[in-house]
Amino acid sequence: MDSIDDILGDIPLPPYVTAEDVTFAIKAILVHAAEQWPDGPRCRNDRAPHPCRLHRWGRRILDQRGLTERQIHAMIAEQEAPRP
Q1: pLDDT, tens digit, 9 for 90 and up, residues 66-81
Q2: Which of 40, 44, 80, 82 is the right S-S partner for 35, CB 3.0 to 4.6 Å?
Q3: Domain limits for position 42
Q4: Arithmetic mean of pLDDT, 48-73
Q5: Conformation bin of residue 83: beta by default, left when phi > 0, alpha when psi is -120 to 50
Q6: Number of independent structural domains in the chain
Q7: By the 8 A CB rule, do 53 and 11 touch?
């Protein structure tokens, strides 16, 4: 049987990327992070092979916005940091 990714394909990007899209993209990357399974990395949220559709969408949004890897890692770290 085909995986859902093969059937549905990638999530379309908006015509232009807003700051709100960037916020949603960071959340998608955090929620749909990789977990190691016996058969390889899988999404910790939906167990699809990693990177899943939402993780890929988030990365494409950030790439389209022109963010560097360093900026992306900083934004992710900021979201993961405990709140006072």
Answers
A1: 999 999 999 999 988 7
A2: 44
A3: 4-80
A4: 94
A5: beta
A6: 1
A7: yes
